[in-house]
Write a structure and sequence with these properties.
Residues 52-179 form the LRAT domain. The protein is an alpha+beta fold. The chain folds into 2 domains: 51-176, endopeptidase fold (from Nostoc punctiforme); 193-231. The chain contains 10 helices and 6 strands; from the N terminus they run H-E-E-E-H-H-E-H-E-H-H-E-H-H-H-H. Strand 1 (52-56) and strand 2 form a beta hairpin. The protein is globular, with a radius of gyration of 19 Å.
């Protein structure tokens, strides 16, 4: 028998919401952050300046541009750039709390980290997206320079300015996000199927947090002004 796709889609939506900011898993029974791999964990000899690096997570992919000398520029949600200008604090490895608050506040930064801090133990794909852009690939030095120019505080948006938008702009000249498109298709599928009230509520909550706006059909109209305020 065919399973109802709505609960599955709702579960997928929640998982994506939790993994939206690439939250690092905590070890069982631990109350602290998982430490990054030790320096030298990755062989960077195969990376070239301007390469686009991908780190697949459970449902999402994190992206960065390799700058050479074990440095990666990548966009991450982060609350600190909006409340302090202390570069030493901002440059510290971003914790889960900073990530979550950054998503809620829609603030981020393009930061430069070591490959170990960027990938956090995940496998790395190199220039895997080139096949989708064919003749649009910019020169490696141009891609790296674009990334370097964007380093610093920036706005965060799942739809318009996430880590994938950042790297596709740098390497291909056009900011696009394929995983965002997939996310939106999941949302549309749940909205179209009115058989599950719970699924509709989940869509509304996820829309508030991720997109800054929610469909008026998902929650009582009393919350619509709040949604519009969140949408900015």
């Amino acid at each position: 028998t065919m399973k109802n796709p709505v609960p599955q889609a709702a579960s997928l939506l929640l998982e994506k919401l939790l993994l939206l900011v690439h939250i690092r898993p905590l070890p069982a029974g631990s109350g602290g952050e998982t430490p990054p791999p030790a320096p030298g964990y990755y062989d960077t000899s195969c990376f070239k300046r301007g390469d686009l690096l991908e780190v697949p997570r459970t449902l999402f992919i994190h992206f960065g541009i390799y700058l050479g000398e074990n440095r990666v520029a990548h966009l991450m949600p982060d609350i600190l750039p909006s409340i302090t200008g202390d570069r030493r604090q901002i440059q510290q490895v971003v914790t889960n709390k900073r990530l979550i608050l950054g998503v809620i506040a829609r603030t981020a930064s393009v930061r430069v980290d070591t490959v170990e801090d960027f990938a956090y133990g995940g496998s790395i794909l190199v220039n895997h997206m080139d096949r989708l852009f064919e003749d649009q690939v910019l020169g490696s030095e141009e891609a790296a320079r674009r990334a370097e120019k964007l380093v610093g505080a920036t706005a965060y948006s799942l739809l318009w300015n996430n880590c994938e938008h950042f790297v596709t702009y740098c390497r291909y000249g056009a900011p696009v996000s394929f995983q965002t498109d997939k996310f939106c298709e999941t949302v549309k599928m749940i909205i179209r199927d009115q058989r599950s009230v719970l699924a509709s509520v989940l869509v509304g909550l996820a829309s508030i947090v991720c997109l800054g706006v929610a469909p008026s059909t998902t929650l009582p109209t009393i919350f619509i002004p709040f949604f519009l305020w969140m949408a900015g």
